[in-house]
Design brief:
This protein is mainly α. 39% of the residues lie in helices and 7% in strands. The protein has 8 helices and 2 strands; from the N terminus they run ααααββαααα.
Length: 210
Protein backbone atom coordinates (compact mmCIF):
# COMPACT_ATOMS: atom_id res chain seq x y z
CA UNK A 1 0.00 0.00 0.00
CA UNK A 2 1.42 3.39 -0.99
CA UNK A 3 1.68 6.20 1.53
CA UNK A 4 -0.73 8.36 -0.48
CA UNK A 5 -3.28 5.57 -0.62
CA UNK A 6 -2.94 5.00 3.12
CA UNK A 7 -3.37 8.68 3.96
CA UNK A 8 -6.36 9.00 1.68
CA UNK A 9 -8.06 5.85 3.01
CA UNK A 10 -7.62 7.05 6.58
CA UNK A 11 -9.53 10.21 5.71
CA UNK A 12 -12.49 8.50 4.03
CA UNK A 13 -15.63 8.66 6.17
CA UNK A 14 -16.48 5.06 7.17
CA UNK A 15 -20.18 5.95 7.33
CA UNK A 16 -20.29 6.66 3.59
CA UNK A 17 -20.01 2.97 2.70
CA UNK A 18 -20.89 -0.53 3.84
CA UNK A 19 -18.39 -2.77 5.57
CA UNK A 20 -18.07 -4.68 2.28
CA UNK A 21 -17.31 -1.42 0.52
CA UNK A 22 -14.60 -0.65 3.02
CA UNK A 23 -13.01 -4.08 2.55
CA UNK A 24 -12.93 -3.66 -1.22
CA UNK A 25 -11.53 -0.12 -0.96
CA UNK A 26 -8.89 -1.31 1.52
CA UNK A 27 -7.60 -3.99 -0.84
CA UNK A 28 -7.66 -1.62 -3.81
CA UNK A 29 -5.49 0.75 -1.77
CA UNK A 30 -3.31 -2.17 -0.70
CA UNK A 31 -2.65 -2.98 -4.37
CA UNK A 32 -1.95 0.63 -5.32
CA UNK A 33 1.53 1.38 -6.59
CA UNK A 34 2.42 5.08 -6.95
CA UNK A 35 4.38 4.37 -10.13
CA UNK A 36 2.32 1.67 -11.85
CA UNK A 37 -1.22 2.21 -10.56
CA UNK A 38 -3.74 -0.34 -9.30
CA UNK A 39 -4.48 -3.54 -11.26
CA UNK A 40 -5.86 -6.27 -8.92
CA UNK A 41 -7.72 -9.09 -10.65
CA UNK A 42 -11.37 -9.71 -9.83
CA UNK A 43 -10.42 -13.18 -8.60
CA UNK A 44 -8.01 -11.56 -6.11
CA UNK A 45 -10.68 -9.16 -4.82
CA UNK A 46 -13.20 -11.99 -4.48
CA UNK A 47 -10.75 -14.07 -2.46
CA UNK A 48 -9.62 -11.24 -0.20
CA UNK A 49 -13.02 -9.70 0.52
CA UNK A 50 -15.07 -12.88 0.78
CA UNK A 51 -17.82 -11.32 -1.34
CA UNK A 52 -19.89 -13.09 -3.98
CA UNK A 53 -19.59 -12.21 -7.66
CA UNK A 54 -22.68 -10.04 -7.65
CA UNK A 55 -21.79 -8.64 -4.23
CA UNK A 56 -18.40 -7.45 -5.43
CA UNK A 57 -19.98 -6.08 -8.58
CA UNK A 58 -22.49 -4.08 -6.54
CA UNK A 59 -19.81 -2.73 -4.18
CA UNK A 60 -17.55 -1.61 -7.03
CA UNK A 61 -20.47 0.12 -8.73
CA UNK A 62 -21.36 1.85 -5.46
CA UNK A 63 -17.78 3.03 -4.86
CA UNK A 64 -17.69 4.32 -8.41
CA UNK A 65 -21.04 6.11 -8.06
CA UNK A 66 -19.78 7.82 -4.91
CA UNK A 67 -16.72 9.13 -6.72
CA UNK A 68 -14.21 7.08 -4.75
CA UNK A 69 -12.91 5.00 -7.67
CA UNK A 70 -13.17 4.74 -11.45
CA UNK A 71 -12.61 1.66 -13.60
CA UNK A 72 -10.86 1.62 -16.97
CA UNK A 73 -11.27 -1.59 -18.96
CA UNK A 74 -8.64 -1.80 -21.64
CA UNK A 75 -7.51 -3.88 -24.58
CA UNK A 76 -4.35 -3.86 -26.63
CA UNK A 77 -5.06 -1.78 -29.77
CA UNK A 78 -3.02 -4.18 -31.92
CA UNK A 79 -3.81 -7.65 -30.59
CA UNK A 80 -7.26 -6.75 -29.18
CA UNK A 81 -6.42 -8.89 -26.16
CA UNK A 82 -7.84 -7.76 -22.83
CA UNK A 83 -5.48 -5.93 -20.52
CA UNK A 84 -5.95 -5.74 -16.72
CA UNK A 85 -8.61 -3.31 -15.55
CA UNK A 86 -7.05 -0.11 -14.23
CA UNK A 87 -8.61 1.08 -10.97
CA UNK A 88 -8.10 4.76 -10.28
CA UNK A 89 -8.55 6.06 -6.75
CA UNK A 90 -10.03 9.50 -6.07
CA UNK A 91 -6.77 11.04 -4.85
CA UNK A 92 -4.82 10.19 -8.03
CA UNK A 93 -3.87 12.90 -10.48
CA UNK A 94 -6.20 12.93 -13.47
CA UNK A 95 -8.98 11.08 -11.62
CA UNK A 96 -12.46 11.64 -13.04
CA UNK A 97 -15.55 10.22 -11.33
CA UNK A 98 -17.67 7.50 -12.95
CA UNK A 99 -16.40 6.22 -16.34
CA UNK A 100 -15.92 9.59 -18.01
CA UNK A 101 -12.13 9.38 -18.02
CA UNK A 102 -10.51 7.89 -21.11
CA UNK A 103 -8.28 4.84 -21.02
CA UNK A 104 -4.53 5.15 -20.64
CA UNK A 105 -2.50 6.17 -23.65
CA UNK A 106 -1.75 3.20 -25.91
CA UNK A 107 -4.92 1.32 -25.09
CA UNK A 108 -8.58 1.45 -25.93
CA UNK A 109 -11.75 0.85 -23.95
CA UNK A 110 -13.87 -2.12 -24.97
CA UNK A 111 -17.28 -1.11 -26.29
CA UNK A 112 -20.51 -2.86 -25.22
CA UNK A 113 -22.30 -5.06 -27.73
CA UNK A 114 -26.04 -5.71 -28.12
CA UNK A 115 -25.47 -9.39 -27.38
CA UNK A 116 -23.68 -8.90 -24.06
CA UNK A 117 -24.60 -5.44 -22.88
CA UNK A 118 -21.12 -5.00 -21.47
CA UNK A 119 -18.37 -5.79 -23.93
CA UNK A 120 -16.91 -8.78 -25.68
CA UNK A 121 -16.06 -10.80 -22.58
CA UNK A 122 -19.44 -10.76 -20.87
CA UNK A 123 -21.95 -13.61 -20.91
CA UNK A 124 -24.64 -11.61 -19.15
CA UNK A 125 -27.99 -10.65 -20.64
CA UNK A 126 -28.45 -8.01 -23.30
CA UNK A 127 -29.67 -5.22 -21.00
CA UNK A 128 -27.28 -4.01 -18.27
CA UNK A 129 -28.70 -3.66 -14.77
CA UNK A 130 -27.32 -2.11 -11.53
CA UNK A 131 -25.90 -5.55 -10.75
CA UNK A 132 -24.70 -6.45 -14.22
CA UNK A 133 -23.71 -3.30 -16.05
CA UNK A 134 -20.08 -2.30 -16.43
CA UNK A 135 -18.71 -5.56 -15.09
CA UNK A 136 -17.30 -8.82 -16.38
CA UNK A 137 -18.42 -10.71 -13.28
CA UNK A 138 -20.69 -13.70 -13.91
CA UNK A 139 -23.73 -14.34 -11.79
CA UNK A 140 -23.58 -18.12 -11.72
CA UNK A 141 -22.78 -19.69 -8.37
CA UNK A 142 -23.36 -16.48 -6.41
CA UNK A 143 -23.27 -16.63 -2.66
CA UNK A 144 -25.90 -14.69 -0.66
CA UNK A 145 -25.18 -10.97 -0.71
CA UNK A 146 -25.00 -9.43 2.74
CA UNK A 147 -24.55 -5.77 1.87
CA UNK A 148 -28.27 -4.85 1.92
CA UNK A 149 -28.51 -6.31 5.43
CA UNK A 150 -25.57 -4.19 6.53
CA UNK A 151 -27.24 -1.14 5.06
CA UNK A 152 -30.42 -1.81 7.01
CA UNK A 153 -28.45 -2.26 10.20
CA UNK A 154 -26.52 0.92 9.53
CA UNK A 155 -29.72 2.89 9.12
CA UNK A 156 -31.02 1.58 12.40
CA UNK A 157 -27.75 1.96 14.31
CA UNK A 158 -25.16 4.51 13.30
CA UNK A 159 -22.42 2.65 15.17
CA UNK A 160 -22.80 -0.57 13.20
CA UNK A 161 -20.54 0.42 10.33
CA UNK A 162 -17.91 1.69 12.74
CA UNK A 163 -18.16 -1.62 14.61
CA UNK A 164 -17.70 -3.62 11.40
CA UNK A 165 -14.59 -1.65 10.49
CA UNK A 166 -13.25 -1.96 14.04
CA UNK A 167 -13.76 -5.73 13.88
CA UNK A 168 -11.99 -5.88 10.50
CA UNK A 169 -8.88 -4.09 11.78
CA UNK A 170 -8.86 -5.99 15.07
CA UNK A 171 -8.97 -9.27 13.15
CA UNK A 172 -6.08 -8.11 10.97
CA UNK A 173 -4.02 -7.22 14.04
CA UNK A 174 -4.84 -10.45 15.86
CA UNK A 175 -3.86 -12.47 12.79
CA UNK A 176 -0.43 -10.83 12.85
CA UNK A 177 -0.81 -9.32 9.39
CA UNK A 178 0.83 -6.05 8.36
CA UNK A 179 -1.10 -2.99 9.49
CA UNK A 180 -0.48 0.57 8.34
CA UNK A 181 -1.14 2.52 11.54
CA UNK A 182 -2.26 5.70 9.82
CA UNK A 183 -5.09 3.79 8.10
CA UNK A 184 -6.78 3.25 11.50
CA UNK A 185 -8.41 6.44 12.76
CA UNK A 186 -8.49 7.35 16.44
CA UNK A 187 -12.26 6.83 16.37
CA UNK A 188 -11.88 3.27 15.09
CA UNK A 189 -9.03 2.53 17.52
CA UNK A 190 -11.12 3.67 20.48
CA UNK A 191 -14.03 1.59 19.27
CA UNK A 192 -11.74 -1.46 19.11
CA UNK A 193 -10.89 -0.89 22.76
CA UNK A 194 -14.52 -0.25 23.76
CA UNK A 195 -15.55 -3.56 22.18
CA UNK A 196 -12.49 -5.26 23.71
CA UNK A 197 -11.47 -6.62 20.33
CA UNK A 198 -7.80 -5.85 21.02
CA UNK A 199 -5.80 -4.65 23.98
CA UNK A 200 -4.05 -1.29 24.24
CA UNK A 201 -0.78 -3.21 24.02
CA UNK A 202 -1.84 -4.75 20.68
CA UNK A 203 -2.56 -1.29 19.27
CA UNK A 204 0.67 0.20 20.62
CA UNK A 205 2.72 -2.61 19.06
CA UNK A 206 1.31 -1.63 15.68
CA UNK A 207 1.80 2.09 16.24
CA UNK A 208 -1.94 2.81 16.32
CA UNK A 209 -2.89 6.04 18.13
CA UNK A 210 -5.90 6.10 20.44
Amino acid sequence: MSHKATTWLAGVDPDCMTSGGFRVLFYLCDCHNPSDGCFPSQAYLLKKTGLSNSGLNKVLADLEAKGLISRHRRSDPKTKKKRPTRYMLAFEKGFKPMLSASADVGSEIEKPTPQSGDGAVSTLGGEPSPLQGKSRLHRSGDKPVKEPVNNQRARGNGATNCDDIAAFWAGTIKAGRRVVASAISVQIARRILELRLCSEEDLKKNGVAF
